[in-house]
Specification:
453 residues; binds glutamine; Amidase signature (AS) enzymes; ligase
């Protein structure tokens, strides 16, 4: 597939041809299930002209359906554009197709989508990761030039790693969340999933920046990173040794080999441990579910999507929510309501906030000594369907990605190797807050080393 960098140079005739080709390719690869609806030529006539970008189904495009892949939002049409969509359009890009995801972005495999599963293009018996599994599979299968995803605890980085593309989560507050269906508001961040690092930088530059419509968006000067990309910057890289040692053998071996290559390229490597792995799963699943229970209380059959029939108002709420939400979403709302309830608030929620501060401090301390942190993205390569047998094993698999969201830091995943079955292994690079330039420079550097450039 043509890169975003090249696609931006096409004229409108060439773009029309490209969109038609894409539609044909999407039809031909239907079994992958990356998009939740089949695109037709009439779709593109009605959609905007511009370089087509695939959009996760929790980002609003005016007058398009948006469901967060939940039954409860069936039939709901977005009343306005998310800020990131307005920014795409202002740069002559255009939303093109809604991609599959775990329901309300809760998951790591895209299996909890109301629309059914997405296959990993590298191996159809395996998951594409999640929750932005549709976006990553679309890019990896060559049926999207680039895509937008959202990352609350790894949902951009992990599916990109499972499918073999690049996934970038900017610093919390760097990209507006206005028009993103909220999962956990203090963790959610929109970002690019692309074929390569340079494309990630290009798409990031387009969507980043202060937005007065999002009160958590950072009112900071923003300078684009793409014009200053420097693949030759020499870096001090802190390798998280205990995380690498705990990962599966193929991941461990691939990362150790990558570290050797980085050393040979003249980078300064030091080794650190992160003690916070003891706390980060618990802290994340308390904070994320608490915020989700509040955010998802708005879906009650009155204003949004599906409404179940009932004799009384109370019964209507209960029926709508009981029928509309899937099992995992219900589990998390119950968990979140529990940890916020009186008597448990201090024991769980407040404690999790304290753990969050500790986790952030640990990252910040390492990043005051090093330019970048290197660690795995997930303990293993892409799972087989159904391999994560219960919710706890799924939660535990998020061990390497969620700390970054709790600390609000920018992080990218870059493919570094394939295992013996051709499944992708990526490295995760994490930078200090607002240092997207350093993260993307480091990522470009790593990508060049891996590709032997
Ligand atoms: N797997 C994590 C969860 O289920 C992260 C999901 C995400 O980043 N949206 O919450």
């Amino acid at each position: 597939m043509i890169s975003l960098k090249e696609a931006i140079k096409l004229n409108s005739n060439e773009l029309n041809t490209l969109r038609k080709e894409l539609i044909e390719k999407i039809k031909a690869t239907k079994e992958i299930g990356a998009y939740i609806e089949q695109l037709t030529n009439s779709d593109i006539d009605e959609s905007f002209a511009g370089v087509p970008i695939a959009i996760k189904d929790n980002i609003q495009v005016k007058n398009w359906s948006i469901t967060s892949c939940s039954k409860i939002l069936q039939g709901y049409k977005a009343p306005y554009n998310a800020t990131v969509i307005n920014k795409l359009i202002a740069s002559s890009l255009a939303p093109f197709g809604r991609t599959n995801m775990d329901e309300f972005a809760m998951g790591s495999t895209t299996e909890s989508s109301y629309y059914g599963k997405t296959l990993n293009p590298l191996d159809h018996t395996r998951v594409p990761g999640g929750s932005s599994g549709g976006s990553a599979a679309a890019v990896a299968a060559g049926i999207a030039i680039a895509a937008l995803g959202s990352d609350t605890g790894g949902s951009i980085r992990q599916p990109a790693a499972f499918c073999g593309c690049v996934g970038f989560k900017p610093t919390y507050g760097r990209v507006s969340r206005y028009g993103l269906a909220a999962y956990s508001s203090s963790l959610d961040q929109i970002g690019p999933i692309t074929q390569n690092v340079e494309d990630a930088a290009i798409l990031y530059d387009i969507i980043a920046g202060y937005d007065k419509l999002d009160s958590t968006s950072a009112n900071l000067d923003f300078s684009p990173v793409t014009p200053n990309l420097n693949p030759n910057r020499k870096l001090k890289i802190a390798v998280i040794k205990n995380y690498i040692d705990e990962a599966s053998k193929p991941v461990r071996d691939a990362l150790n080999l990558t570290i050797e290559k980085l050393k040979n390229a003249g980078h300064d490597i030091c080794y650190k441990d992160l003690a916070n792995s003891k706390y980060n799963i618990a802290a994340y699943y308390i904070i994320a579910t608490a915020e989700a229970s509040a955010n998802l209380s708005r879906y009650d059959g009155v204003r949004y999507g599906n409404r179940a029939s009932a004799d009384t108002l109370g019964q209507m709420y209960a029926n709508t929510r009981g029928e509309g939400f899937g099992v995992e979403v219900q589990r998390r709302m119950l968990l979140g309501t529990f940890v916020l309830s009186s008597g448990y608030y201090d024991a769980y929620y407040i404690k999790a906030q304290k753990a969050r501060a500790f986790i952030k401090r640990e990252y910040d301390e390492i990043l005051s000594e090093a330019d970048i942190i290197l660690m795995p993205v997930a303990p293993s390569v892409a799972y087989k369907f159904g391999e994560l047998k219960n919710p706890l094993s799924a939660y535990l698999s998020d061990i390497y990605t969620i700390g970054v969201n709790l600390a609000g830091l920018p992080a990218i995943t870059v493919p570094v190797a394939s295992d013996e079955n051709g499944l992708n292994i990526s490295a995760q690079l994490i930078g200090a807050a607002w240092q997207e330039q350093v993260v993307l420079d480091a990522a470009l550097n790593l990508e060049n080393i891996v590709k032997g450039n």
